[in-house]
Protein backbone atom coordinates (compact mmCIF):
# COMPACT_ATOMS: atom_id res chain seq x y z
CA UNK A 1 0.00 0.00 0.00
CA UNK A 2 1.06 3.64 -0.26
CA UNK A 3 1.58 3.70 3.51
CA UNK A 4 4.04 0.88 3.30
CA UNK A 5 5.96 2.86 0.74
CA UNK A 6 6.31 5.73 3.20
CA UNK A 7 7.88 3.47 5.76
CA UNK A 8 10.76 1.57 4.39
CA UNK A 9 12.24 -1.60 5.73
CA UNK A 10 15.83 -1.16 4.60
CA UNK A 11 18.35 0.21 7.00
CA UNK A 12 20.58 3.17 6.22
CA UNK A 13 24.34 3.24 6.17
CA UNK A 14 25.68 5.79 8.61
CA UNK A 15 29.19 7.06 8.10
CA UNK A 16 31.00 9.54 10.31
CA UNK A 17 34.15 11.36 9.41
CA UNK A 18 36.71 12.92 11.77
CA UNK A 19 34.30 13.64 14.58
CA UNK A 20 35.79 15.85 17.27
CA UNK A 21 33.65 16.98 20.15
CA UNK A 22 34.53 19.44 22.91
CA UNK A 23 32.54 20.81 25.82
CA UNK A 24 33.10 23.80 28.06
CA UNK A 25 33.31 22.88 31.71
CA UNK A 26 32.89 25.46 34.43
CA UNK A 27 35.59 24.75 36.98
CA UNK A 28 34.09 26.88 39.74
CA UNK A 29 31.97 29.99 40.08
CA UNK A 30 34.86 32.44 39.85
CA UNK A 31 37.20 30.52 37.54
CA UNK A 32 37.06 30.56 33.77
CA UNK A 33 35.54 27.66 31.88
CA UNK A 34 37.82 24.88 30.70
CA UNK A 35 37.50 23.11 27.36
CA UNK A 36 37.37 19.33 27.56
CA UNK A 37 37.68 17.22 24.43
CA UNK A 38 35.47 14.14 24.62
CA UNK A 39 35.88 12.62 21.15
CA UNK A 40 38.98 12.66 18.94
CA UNK A 41 38.93 12.11 15.17
CA UNK A 42 36.32 9.35 15.21
CA UNK A 43 35.78 7.91 11.74
CA UNK A 44 33.80 4.87 10.71
CA UNK A 45 30.80 3.25 9.09
CA UNK A 46 27.77 1.55 10.56
CA UNK A 47 25.89 -0.67 8.13
CA UNK A 48 22.48 -2.37 8.43
CA UNK A 49 22.81 -4.94 11.22
CA UNK A 50 23.85 -4.89 14.87
CA UNK A 51 26.47 -2.23 15.60
CA UNK A 52 27.88 -1.93 19.09
CA UNK A 53 29.72 1.02 20.56
CA UNK A 54 31.77 -0.40 23.42
CA UNK A 55 34.27 0.97 25.87
CA UNK A 56 34.84 1.67 29.55
CA UNK A 57 32.69 4.10 31.48
CA UNK A 58 33.38 7.69 30.43
CA UNK A 59 34.97 6.73 27.12
CA UNK A 60 32.38 8.72 25.15
CA UNK A 61 29.91 6.02 24.01
CA UNK A 62 26.71 7.90 24.84
CA UNK A 63 28.13 11.15 23.47
CA UNK A 64 29.00 9.55 20.13
CA UNK A 65 25.61 7.84 19.98
CA UNK A 66 23.84 11.16 20.51
CA UNK A 67 25.98 12.87 17.88
CA UNK A 68 25.19 10.14 15.34
CA UNK A 69 21.49 10.40 16.21
CA UNK A 70 21.57 14.18 15.62
CA UNK A 71 20.76 14.89 19.26
CA UNK A 72 23.73 17.15 19.94
CA UNK A 73 23.93 20.76 18.80
CA UNK A 74 25.62 20.56 15.42
CA UNK A 75 27.66 23.69 15.92
CA UNK A 76 29.57 22.10 18.75
CA UNK A 77 30.52 19.04 16.67
CA UNK A 78 33.45 19.04 14.25
CA UNK A 79 33.40 16.58 11.36
CA UNK A 80 30.45 15.21 9.48
CA UNK A 81 27.86 12.47 9.66
CA UNK A 82 26.47 11.09 6.40
CA UNK A 83 23.33 9.01 6.00
CA UNK A 84 23.46 6.81 2.90
CA UNK A 85 26.27 9.00 1.63
CA UNK A 86 24.25 12.20 1.92
CA UNK A 87 24.13 15.03 4.46
CA UNK A 88 22.34 14.05 7.62
CA UNK A 89 18.95 15.78 7.37
CA UNK A 90 18.43 18.54 9.93
CA UNK A 91 15.56 16.61 11.49
CA UNK A 92 17.25 13.21 11.37
CA UNK A 93 16.40 12.85 15.06
CA UNK A 94 12.68 12.76 14.09
CA UNK A 95 13.22 10.06 11.47
CA UNK A 96 15.49 7.79 13.47
CA UNK A 97 14.41 5.96 16.60
CA UNK A 98 16.22 6.70 19.84
CA UNK A 99 15.75 4.62 22.97
CA UNK A 100 17.16 6.48 25.95
CA UNK A 101 18.84 4.78 28.88
CA UNK A 102 16.12 5.76 31.34
CA UNK A 103 12.60 4.85 30.42
CA UNK A 104 10.60 7.53 28.70
CA UNK A 105 7.12 6.03 28.84
CA UNK A 106 4.26 7.31 30.97
CA UNK A 107 3.76 5.10 34.03
CA UNK A 108 0.01 5.50 34.42
CA UNK A 109 -0.73 4.37 30.86
CA UNK A 110 -0.75 0.79 29.62
CA UNK A 111 1.78 -0.62 27.16
CA UNK A 112 -0.79 -0.39 24.34
CA UNK A 113 -1.78 3.19 25.22
CA UNK A 114 1.85 4.32 25.19
CA UNK A 115 2.43 2.68 21.81
CA UNK A 116 -0.81 4.18 20.45
CA UNK A 117 0.34 7.62 21.62
CA UNK A 118 3.50 7.23 19.57
CA UNK A 119 1.52 5.89 16.57
CA UNK A 120 -1.07 8.67 16.71
CA UNK A 121 1.56 11.39 16.73
CA UNK A 122 4.30 9.99 14.54
CA UNK A 123 2.58 8.09 11.78
CA UNK A 124 1.56 10.14 8.76
CA UNK A 125 -2.01 11.30 8.25
CA UNK A 126 -2.45 8.74 5.49
CA UNK A 127 -2.64 6.01 8.17
CA UNK A 128 -6.20 5.33 9.25
CA UNK A 129 -7.08 4.56 12.87
CA UNK A 130 -7.48 0.90 11.93
CA UNK A 131 -4.04 0.75 10.34
CA UNK A 132 -2.46 2.36 13.41
CA UNK A 133 -4.15 -0.18 15.66
CA UNK A 134 -2.91 -2.98 13.43
CA UNK A 135 0.61 -1.61 13.50
CA UNK A 136 0.58 -1.39 17.30
CA UNK A 137 -0.80 -4.94 17.55
CA UNK A 138 1.99 -6.19 15.29
CA UNK A 139 4.64 -4.47 17.41
CA UNK A 140 3.14 -5.86 20.62
CA UNK A 141 3.28 -9.32 19.10
CA UNK A 142 6.76 -8.86 17.67
CA UNK A 143 8.12 -7.65 21.02
CA UNK A 144 6.44 -10.45 22.97
CA UNK A 145 4.32 -8.01 24.97
CA UNK A 146 0.95 -9.63 24.33
CA UNK A 147 0.44 -10.77 27.92
CA UNK A 148 1.11 -7.36 29.44
CA UNK A 149 -0.28 -5.21 26.60
CA UNK A 150 -3.09 -3.90 28.77
CA UNK A 151 -1.11 -3.57 32.00
CA UNK A 152 0.07 -0.20 33.20
CA UNK A 153 3.77 0.56 32.93
CA UNK A 154 4.05 1.51 36.60
CA UNK A 155 5.48 4.38 38.60
CA UNK A 156 6.99 4.92 42.06
CA UNK A 157 3.58 4.49 43.64
CA UNK A 158 2.20 1.92 41.23
CA UNK A 159 3.53 -1.60 40.66
CA UNK A 160 3.75 -2.13 36.94
CA UNK A 161 5.33 -4.37 34.34
CA UNK A 162 8.85 -5.82 34.66
CA UNK A 163 12.06 -4.03 33.69
CA UNK A 164 12.48 -6.14 30.54
CA UNK A 165 8.91 -5.47 29.43
CA UNK A 166 9.40 -1.77 30.08
CA UNK A 167 12.57 -1.75 27.98
CA UNK A 168 10.75 -3.56 25.16
CA UNK A 169 7.92 -1.00 25.38
CA UNK A 170 10.50 1.77 24.99
CA UNK A 171 11.84 0.01 21.91
CA UNK A 172 8.28 -0.42 20.61
CA UNK A 173 7.65 3.33 20.93
CA UNK A 174 10.40 3.82 18.34
CA UNK A 175 9.56 0.82 16.14
CA UNK A 176 6.14 2.34 15.50
CA UNK A 177 7.70 4.61 12.87
CA UNK A 178 9.71 1.73 11.37
CA UNK A 179 12.91 3.77 11.51
CA UNK A 180 15.73 2.94 9.14
CA UNK A 181 18.16 3.53 11.99
CA UNK A 182 17.47 2.69 15.61
CA UNK A 183 19.76 4.04 18.33
CA UNK A 184 19.77 2.58 21.83
CA UNK A 185 21.69 3.94 24.78
CA UNK A 186 22.72 0.96 26.91
CA UNK A 187 19.68 -1.22 26.19
CA UNK A 188 20.73 -3.93 28.66
CA UNK A 189 21.45 -1.76 31.69
CA UNK A 190 19.38 -2.80 34.70
CA UNK A 191 18.31 -6.12 33.18
CA UNK A 192 19.27 -9.58 34.36
CA UNK A 193 21.46 -11.55 31.93
CA UNK A 194 18.68 -13.65 30.38
CA UNK A 195 16.33 -10.67 29.94
CA UNK A 196 19.25 -8.74 28.47
CA UNK A 197 19.81 -11.57 26.02
CA UNK A 198 16.09 -11.64 25.15
CA UNK A 199 16.14 -7.89 24.40
CA UNK A 200 19.31 -8.15 22.31
CA UNK A 201 18.00 -11.18 20.39
CA UNK A 202 14.91 -9.17 19.60
CA UNK A 203 17.07 -6.32 18.27
CA UNK A 204 19.04 -8.86 16.28
CA UNK A 205 15.80 -10.13 14.76
CA UNK A 206 14.79 -6.58 13.86
CA UNK A 207 18.20 -5.96 12.30
CA UNK A 208 17.79 -9.07 10.17
CA UNK A 209 14.69 -7.43 8.70
CA UNK A 210 17.05 -4.83 7.29
CA UNK A 211 17.47 -2.16 9.94
CA UNK A 212 20.57 -0.44 11.22
CA UNK A 213 20.73 -0.89 14.97
CA UNK A 214 23.37 1.16 16.76
CA UNK A 215 23.74 0.88 20.52
CA UNK A 216 26.17 1.57 23.30
CA UNK A 217 26.86 -1.30 25.65
CA UNK A 218 29.22 -2.02 28.54
CA UNK A 219 30.10 -5.65 29.05
CA UNK A 220 27.73 -7.95 27.21
CA UNK A 221 27.96 -11.68 27.92
CA UNK A 222 29.48 -13.84 25.18
CA UNK A 223 26.07 -14.99 23.89
CA UNK A 224 25.12 -11.36 23.32
CA UNK A 225 28.51 -10.45 21.88
CA UNK A 226 28.05 -13.14 19.21
CA UNK A 227 25.00 -11.24 17.90
CA UNK A 228 27.05 -8.17 16.96
CA UNK A 229 27.97 -7.46 13.35
CA UNK A 230 30.13 -4.39 13.82
CA UNK A 231 32.02 -2.95 16.79
CA UNK A 232 33.45 0.42 17.62
CA UNK A 233 35.62 0.19 20.70
CA UNK A 234 36.36 3.52 22.35
CA UNK A 235 38.97 4.42 24.94
CA UNK A 236 39.12 7.97 26.32
CA UNK A 237 37.30 9.27 23.24
CA UNK A 238 39.58 7.54 20.72
CA UNK A 239 39.01 4.62 18.36
CA UNK A 240 40.70 1.53 19.76
CA UNK A 241 39.07 -0.79 17.21
CA UNK A 242 36.36 -0.43 14.59
CA UNK A 243 35.33 -3.16 12.21
CA UNK A 244 33.59 -6.53 12.03
CA UNK A 245 32.84 -8.00 15.46
CA UNK A 246 34.18 -11.42 14.51
CA UNK A 247 37.59 -9.94 13.65
CA UNK A 248 38.10 -8.12 16.94
CA UNK A 249 39.92 -10.93 18.75
CA UNK A 250 42.03 -11.53 15.67
CA UNK A 251 43.02 -7.85 15.59
CA UNK A 252 44.02 -7.75 19.25
CA UNK A 253 45.91 -10.96 18.77
CA UNK A 254 47.82 -9.29 15.94
CA UNK A 255 48.98 -6.50 18.25
CA UNK A 256 49.94 -8.89 20.99
CA UNK A 257 46.88 -9.24 23.20
CA UNK A 258 45.65 -12.78 23.61
CA UNK A 259 42.30 -13.60 25.12
CA UNK A 260 42.27 -16.44 27.65
CA UNK A 261 40.28 -19.46 26.58
CA UNK A 262 37.42 -18.97 29.03
CA UNK A 263 37.52 -15.19 29.08
CA UNK A 264 34.52 -13.21 27.90
CA UNK A 265 35.79 -11.15 24.92
CA UNK A 266 33.93 -8.02 26.11
CA UNK A 267 35.72 -8.14 29.46
CA UNK A 268 38.99 -8.79 27.65
CA UNK A 269 38.55 -5.66 25.48
CA UNK A 270 37.75 -3.49 28.48
CA UNK A 271 40.78 -4.88 30.29
CA UNK A 272 42.96 -3.89 27.35
CA UNK A 273 41.60 -0.34 27.19
CA UNK A 274 41.82 0.06 30.96
CA UNK A 275 45.39 -1.28 30.95
CA UNK A 276 44.34 -4.09 33.25
CA UNK A 277 47.14 -6.48 34.08
CA UNK A 278 45.31 -9.66 33.04
CA UNK A 279 45.32 -8.92 29.35
CA UNK A 280 48.87 -7.67 29.44
CA UNK A 281 49.98 -10.63 31.53
CA UNK A 282 48.49 -13.00 28.96
CA UNK A 283 50.61 -11.28 26.38
CA UNK A 284 53.80 -11.71 28.40
CA UNK A 285 53.05 -15.32 29.18
CA UNK A 286 52.17 -16.42 25.69
CA UNK A 287 54.08 -14.24 23.29
CA UNK A 288 57.03 -13.16 25.34
CA UNK A 289 56.00 -9.60 24.43
CA UNK A 290 57.43 -9.99 20.93
CA UNK A 291 55.19 -7.24 19.51
CA UNK A 292 55.59 -5.02 22.51
CA UNK A 293 52.80 -4.56 25.03
CA UNK A 294 51.51 -1.78 22.86
CA UNK A 295 53.12 1.06 24.70
CA UNK A 296 56.34 -0.66 25.48
CA UNK A 297 58.11 1.57 22.94
CA UNK A 298 57.23 4.69 24.82
CA UNK A 299 56.20 4.01 28.43
CA UNK A 300 55.46 7.70 29.07
CA UNK A 301 52.63 7.67 26.50
CA UNK A 302 49.16 6.91 27.82
CA UNK A 303 48.11 3.40 26.84
CA UNK A 304 44.94 4.49 24.99
CA UNK A 305 46.98 6.78 22.72
CA UNK A 306 49.24 3.92 21.77
CA UNK A 307 46.28 1.61 21.24
CA UNK A 308 44.57 4.21 19.04
CA UNK A 309 47.77 4.66 17.00
CA UNK A 310 48.18 0.90 16.72
CA UNK A 311 44.71 0.57 15.28
CA UNK A 312 45.12 3.48 12.92
CA UNK A 313 48.35 1.98 11.54
CA UNK A 314 47.06 -1.57 11.38
CA UNK A 315 45.66 -3.15 8.16
CA UNK A 316 42.25 -3.27 9.94
CA UNK A 317 42.31 0.46 10.64
CA UNK A 318 43.59 1.32 7.16
CA UNK A 319 40.89 -0.78 5.50
CA UNK A 320 38.15 0.88 7.55
CA UNK A 321 39.52 4.37 6.83
CA UNK A 322 39.72 3.57 3.12
CA UNK A 323 36.10 2.49 3.06
CA UNK A 324 34.99 5.60 4.95
CA UNK A 325 37.08 7.86 2.69
CA UNK A 326 35.40 6.36 -0.36
CA UNK A 327 31.98 7.30 0.98
CA UNK A 328 33.17 10.79 1.87
CA UNK A 329 34.91 11.36 -1.48
CA UNK A 330 31.83 10.31 -3.38
CA UNK A 331 29.76 12.69 -1.24
CA UNK A 332 32.27 15.46 -1.75
CA UNK A 333 32.49 15.07 -5.52
CA UNK A 334 28.68 15.07 -5.82
CA UNK A 335 28.55 18.11 -3.58
CA UNK A 336 31.09 20.03 -5.66
CA UNK A 337 29.21 19.03 -8.83
CA UNK A 338 26.19 20.72 -7.31
CA UNK A 339 24.01 17.58 -7.21
CA UNK A 340 21.15 17.49 -4.76
CA UNK A 341 22.82 16.21 -1.63
CA UNK A 342 20.20 16.53 1.04
CA UNK A 343 17.53 14.12 2.11
CA UNK A 344 14.10 15.69 1.90
CA UNK A 345 13.29 17.29 5.27
CA UNK A 346 10.30 15.59 6.82
CA UNK A 347 8.29 17.85 9.08
CA UNK A 348 6.08 16.71 11.94
CA UNK A 349 3.83 13.86 10.89
CA UNK A 350 0.73 15.46 12.43
CA UNK A 351 -0.86 18.89 12.71
CA UNK A 352 -0.78 21.17 15.75
CA UNK A 353 -4.40 20.29 16.59
CA UNK A 354 -3.80 16.53 16.45
CA UNK A 355 -0.77 16.92 18.68
CA UNK A 356 -2.74 19.14 21.04
CA UNK A 357 -5.53 16.56 21.15
CA UNK A 358 -3.38 13.54 21.95
CA UNK A 359 -1.16 15.26 24.50
CA UNK A 360 -4.28 16.62 26.26
CA UNK A 361 -5.87 13.18 26.16
CA UNK A 362 -2.78 11.62 27.74
CA UNK A 363 -2.60 14.33 30.42
CA UNK A 364 -6.27 13.88 31.33
CA UNK A 365 -5.88 10.09 31.44
CA UNK A 366 -2.90 10.64 33.71
CA UNK A 367 -4.89 12.91 36.05
CA UNK A 368 -7.85 10.49 36.16
CA UNK A 369 -5.62 7.52 36.98
CA UNK A 370 -3.62 9.42 39.55
CA UNK A 371 -6.22 11.82 40.93
CA UNK A 372 -4.51 12.31 44.31
CA UNK A 373 -2.88 15.64 43.35
CA UNK A 374 -6.16 17.08 42.08
CA UNK A 375 -8.20 15.73 45.02
CA UNK A 376 -5.66 17.10 47.46
CA UNK A 377 -5.77 20.54 45.82
CA UNK A 378 -9.60 20.58 45.90
CA UNK A 379 -9.71 19.38 49.53
CA UNK A 380 -7.10 21.88 50.71
CA UNK A 381 -8.86 24.73 48.94
CA UNK A 382 -12.23 23.72 50.35
CA UNK A 383 -10.94 23.52 53.94
CA UNK A 384 -8.98 26.71 53.54
CA UNK A 385 -12.19 28.33 52.30
CA UNK A 386 -13.92 27.06 55.47
CA UNK A 387 -11.09 28.47 57.60
CA UNK A 388 -11.26 31.91 55.94
CA UNK A 389 -15.05 31.75 56.17
CA UNK A 390 -14.91 31.05 59.92
CA UNK A 391 -12.34 33.82 60.50
CA UNK A 392 -14.37 36.42 58.64
CA UNK A 393 -17.79 34.89 59.24
CA UNK A 394 -20.78 37.08 58.27
CA UNK A 395 -19.03 40.45 58.48
CA UNK A 396 -21.36 43.15 59.65
CA UNK A 397 -22.16 46.40 57.86
CA UNK A 398 -20.51 48.69 60.37
CA UNK A 399 -17.29 50.54 59.44
CA UNK A 400 -14.91 47.84 60.72
CA UNK A 401 -16.81 45.03 59.09
CA UNK A 402 -17.34 46.83 55.81
CA UNK A 403 -13.85 48.22 55.26
CA UNK A 404 -11.16 46.82 57.56
CA UNK A 405 -12.27 43.20 57.74
CA UNK A 406 -13.27 43.04 54.09
CA UNK A 407 -9.87 44.40 53.04
CA UNK A 408 -8.23 41.87 55.36
CA UNK A 409 -10.35 39.04 53.95
CA UNK A 410 -9.52 40.15 50.41
CA UNK A 411 -5.78 40.14 51.22
CA UNK A 412 -6.00 36.72 52.83
CA UNK A 413 -7.97 35.26 49.91
CA UNK A 414 -5.58 36.76 47.34
CA UNK A 415 -2.60 35.41 49.21
CA UNK A 416 -4.14 31.95 49.29
CA UNK A 417 -4.84 32.06 45.56
CA UNK A 418 -1.29 33.04 44.69
CA UNK A 419 0.45 30.63 47.06
CA UNK A 420 -1.75 27.70 46.07
CA UNK A 421 0.06 27.90 42.72
CA UNK A 422 3.22 26.53 44.28
CA UNK A 423 1.98 23.13 43.12
CA UNK A 424 2.20 24.29 39.48
CA UNK A 425 5.97 23.98 39.68
CA UNK A 426 5.74 20.20 39.25
CA UNK A 427 3.93 20.38 35.93
CA UNK A 428 7.00 20.59 33.68
CA UNK A 429 9.73 19.73 36.19
CA UNK A 430 8.41 16.20 36.78
CA UNK A 431 7.87 15.41 33.11
CA UNK A 432 11.00 17.08 31.85
CA UNK A 433 12.79 13.92 30.72
CA UNK A 434 9.80 12.57 28.79
CA UNK A 435 9.12 15.97 27.23
CA UNK A 436 12.72 16.43 26.04
CA UNK A 437 12.81 12.90 24.62
CA UNK A 438 9.49 13.28 22.81
CA UNK A 439 9.91 16.80 21.50
CA UNK A 440 13.41 16.06 20.19
CA UNK A 441 12.06 12.85 18.65
CA UNK A 442 9.43 14.77 16.69
CA UNK A 443 6.33 13.59 18.58
CA UNK A 444 4.96 17.13 18.84
CA UNK A 445 5.72 20.81 18.56
CA UNK A 446 6.74 22.47 21.81
CA UNK A 447 3.76 24.85 21.49
CA UNK A 448 1.27 21.95 21.21
CA UNK A 449 2.71 20.36 24.34
CA UNK A 450 2.78 23.65 26.23
CA UNK A 451 -0.81 24.67 25.48
CA UNK A 452 -2.27 21.24 26.15
CA UNK A 453 -0.42 20.88 29.46
CA UNK A 454 -1.31 24.45 30.38
CA UNK A 455 -5.04 23.96 29.80
CA UNK A 456 -5.11 20.49 31.31
CA UNK A 457 -3.49 21.79 34.46
CA UNK A 458 -5.47 25.02 34.71
CA UNK A 459 -8.91 23.49 34.64
CA UNK A 460 -8.60 20.58 37.11
CA UNK A 461 -5.86 21.98 39.32
CA UNK A 462 -6.73 25.69 39.48
CA UNK A 463 -10.27 26.41 38.30
CA UNK A 464 -12.11 23.43 39.88
CA UNK A 465 -10.56 23.98 43.36
CA UNK A 466 -11.26 27.71 42.97
CA UNK A 467 -14.97 26.97 42.50
CA UNK A 468 -15.06 25.10 45.84
CA UNK A 469 -13.03 27.80 47.55
CA UNK A 470 -14.89 30.83 46.24
CA UNK A 471 -18.38 29.44 46.86
CA UNK A 472 -17.49 28.56 50.47
CA UNK A 473 -15.77 31.87 51.18
CA UNK A 474 -18.33 34.05 49.43
CA UNK A 475 -21.26 32.51 51.24
CA UNK A 476 -19.65 32.36 54.70
CA UNK A 477 -18.23 35.89 54.70
CA UNK A 478 -21.66 37.12 53.77
CA UNK A 479 -21.00 38.95 50.51
CA UNK A 480 -24.10 39.92 48.56
CA UNK A 481 -25.89 36.90 47.14
CA UNK A 482 -26.19 38.19 43.61
CA UNK A 483 -24.97 36.07 40.76
CA UNK A 484 -23.13 38.77 38.79
CA UNK A 485 -21.35 39.96 41.95
CA UNK A 486 -20.27 36.41 42.67
CA UNK A 487 -19.08 36.03 39.07
CA UNK A 488 -17.08 39.24 39.38
CA UNK A 489 -15.49 37.92 42.57
CA UNK A 490 -14.75 34.61 40.83
CA UNK A 491 -13.29 36.39 37.80
CA UNK A 492 -10.88 38.46 39.89
CA UNK A 493 -9.64 35.37 41.72
CA UNK A 494 -9.56 33.33 38.49
CA UNK A 495 -7.36 35.89 36.72
CA UNK A 496 -5.13 36.13 39.76
CA UNK A 497 -4.70 32.36 40.12
CA UNK A 498 -4.17 31.84 36.39
CA UNK A 499 -1.46 34.50 36.36
CA UNK A 500 0.18 32.93 39.44
CA UNK A 501 0.09 29.51 37.77
CA UNK A 502 1.60 30.97 34.60
CA UNK A 503 4.54 32.33 36.59
CA UNK A 504 4.83 28.86 38.16
CA UNK A 505 4.94 27.23 34.71
CA UNK A 506 7.59 29.70 33.52
CA UNK A 507 9.79 28.94 36.52
CA UNK A 508 9.11 25.22 36.25
CA UNK A 509 10.14 25.06 32.61
CA UNK A 510 13.24 27.20 33.12
CA UNK A 511 14.87 25.32 35.99
CA UNK A 512 15.99 21.72 35.83
CA UNK A 513 15.71 20.86 39.50
CA UNK A 514 12.32 20.57 41.14
CA UNK A 515 13.55 21.89 44.49
CA UNK A 516 15.27 24.97 43.00
CA UNK A 517 12.14 25.72 40.97
CA UNK A 518 10.06 25.43 44.13
CA UNK A 519 12.36 27.72 46.09
CA UNK A 520 12.54 30.24 43.27
CA UNK A 521 8.75 30.40 42.93
CA UNK A 522 8.30 30.74 46.69
CA UNK A 523 10.73 33.69 46.73
CA UNK A 524 8.86 35.38 43.87
CA UNK A 525 5.53 35.00 45.67
CA UNK A 526 6.93 36.27 49.00
CA UNK A 527 8.33 39.37 47.22
CA UNK A 528 4.93 39.88 45.61
CA UNK A 529 3.37 39.72 49.06
CA UNK A 530 5.75 42.36 50.45
CA UNK A 531 5.10 44.65 47.48
CA UNK A 532 1.37 43.92 47.51
CA UNK A 533 0.58 47.20 49.30
CA UNK A 534 -1.07 45.67 52.34
CA UNK A 535 1.82 44.89 54.68
CA UNK A 536 3.87 47.93 53.67
CA UNK A 537 2.69 51.37 52.56
CA UNK A 538 4.12 51.61 49.05
CA UNK A 539 4.19 55.44 49.08
CA UNK A 540 6.70 55.43 51.94
CA UNK A 541 9.09 53.13 50.14
CA UNK A 542 12.41 54.36 48.65
CA UNK A 543 12.06 55.16 44.99
CA UNK A 544 14.78 52.76 43.86
CA UNK A 545 12.79 49.90 45.40
CA UNK A 546 9.24 50.94 44.83
CA UNK A 547 9.20 49.97 41.12
CA UNK A 548 9.01 46.35 42.29
CA UNK A 549 5.36 46.93 43.21
CA UNK A 550 4.53 46.88 39.49
CA UNK A 551 5.65 43.26 39.34
CA UNK A 552 3.38 42.19 42.17
CA UNK A 553 0.32 40.19 41.19
CA UNK A 554 -1.00 40.54 44.72
CA UNK A 555 -0.94 44.33 44.38
CA UNK A 556 -3.02 44.22 41.19
CA UNK A 557 -5.59 41.81 42.63
CA UNK A 558 -5.91 43.82 45.82
CA UNK A 559 -6.10 47.08 43.88
CA UNK A 560 -9.01 45.85 41.77
CA UNK A 561 -10.78 44.40 44.83
CA UNK A 562 -10.29 47.47 47.01
CA UNK A 563 -11.14 49.83 44.14
CA UNK A 564 -14.51 48.14 43.81
CA UNK A 565 -14.93 48.32 47.56
CA UNK A 566 -14.13 52.07 47.67
CA UNK A 567 -16.25 52.97 44.64
CA UNK A 568 -19.17 51.44 46.43
CA UNK A 569 -18.25 53.13 49.68
CA UNK A 570 -18.15 56.50 47.92
CA UNK A 571 -21.39 55.81 46.11
CA UNK A 572 -23.21 54.63 49.19
CA UNK A 573 -22.59 57.21 51.84
CA UNK A 574 -23.65 54.86 54.60
CA UNK A 575 -20.67 52.61 53.91
CA UNK A 576 -22.78 49.55 54.10
CA UNK A 577 -23.27 48.59 50.50
CA UNK A 578 -20.33 47.60 48.42
CA UNK A 579 -19.84 45.19 45.60
CA UNK A 580 -19.31 42.29 47.97
CA UNK A 581 -21.43 43.40 50.88
N1 LIG B 1 28.12 18.20 28.66
C1 LIG B 1 29.18 17.69 29.28
N2 LIG B 1 29.87 18.43 30.15
C2 LIG B 1 30.95 17.93 30.77
N3 LIG B 1 31.43 16.69 30.58
C3 LIG B 1 30.79 15.91 29.73
C4 LIG B 1 29.62 16.36 29.03
N4 LIG B 1 29.18 15.35 28.24
C5 LIG B 1 30.02 14.33 28.45
N5 LIG B 1 30.99 14.66 29.34
C6 LIG B 1 32.09 13.82 29.79
O1 LIG B 1 32.55 13.10 28.67
C7 LIG B 1 32.93 11.80 29.03
C8 LIG B 1 32.18 10.79 28.18
O2 LIG B 1 30.81 10.80 28.56
P1 LIG B 1 29.79 9.71 28.02
O3 LIG B 1 28.53 9.84 28.79
O4 LIG B 1 29.71 9.81 26.56
O5 LIG B 1 30.54 8.37 28.43
P2 LIG B 1 30.06 6.87 28.36
O6 LIG B 1 31.14 6.11 27.73
O7 LIG B 1 28.72 6.77 27.73
O8 LIG B 1 29.98 6.55 29.91
P3 LIG B 1 28.97 5.56 30.67
O9 LIG B 1 29.24 4.20 30.12
O10 LIG B 1 29.40 5.67 32.09
O11 LIG B 1 27.58 6.05 30.43
C9 LIG B 1 32.66 11.66 30.52
O12 LIG B 1 33.86 11.87 31.20
C10 LIG B 1 31.68 12.76 30.80
O13 LIG B 1 31.82 13.22 32.11
Describe it.
The chain has 581 residues and is of the alpha/beta class. The protein folds into two domains: 8-96 and 222-284 and 299-349, Rossmann fold (3-Layer(aba) Sandwich), CATH 3.40.50; 352-579, no CATH class. Helix content is 53%, strand content 12%. The chain contains 23 helices and ten strands. The strands form two sheets. It has a six-stranded mixed beta sheet, with helices on both faces. Strands 2-1-4-5 form a four-stranded antiparallel beta sheet, with helices on both faces. A hairpin with a 2-residue loop joins strand 9 and strand 10 (238-244). The longest helix is centred in the C-terminal third of the chain and has 32 residues, at 446-477. It starts with a helix and ends in a 10-residue tail after the last helix. Mean pLDDT is 82; it is low at 1-8, 286-296 and 569-581. The structure holds adenosine-5'-triphosphate. Residues 23, 25, 36, 38, 55, 57-63, 216 line the site of adenosine-5'-triphosphate.
Amino acid sequence: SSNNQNITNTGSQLSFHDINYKVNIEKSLCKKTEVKQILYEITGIFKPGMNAIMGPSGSGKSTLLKILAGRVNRESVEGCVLVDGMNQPSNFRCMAGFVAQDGTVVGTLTVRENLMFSANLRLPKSFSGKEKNKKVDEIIYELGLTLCADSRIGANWLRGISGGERKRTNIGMELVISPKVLFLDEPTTGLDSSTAFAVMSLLNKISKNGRTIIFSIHQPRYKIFKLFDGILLLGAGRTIYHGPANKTLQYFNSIGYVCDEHENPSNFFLDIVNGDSTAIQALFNRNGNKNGSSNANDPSKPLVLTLAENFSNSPYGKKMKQEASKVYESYYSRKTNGSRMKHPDILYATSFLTQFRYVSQRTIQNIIRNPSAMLLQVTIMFFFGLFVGILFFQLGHNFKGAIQNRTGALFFITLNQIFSNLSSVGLFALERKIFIHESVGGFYRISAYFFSKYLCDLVPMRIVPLIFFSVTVYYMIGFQLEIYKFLLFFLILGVSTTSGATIGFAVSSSLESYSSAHLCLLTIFVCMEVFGGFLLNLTTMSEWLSWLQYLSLIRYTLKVGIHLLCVCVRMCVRVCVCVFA
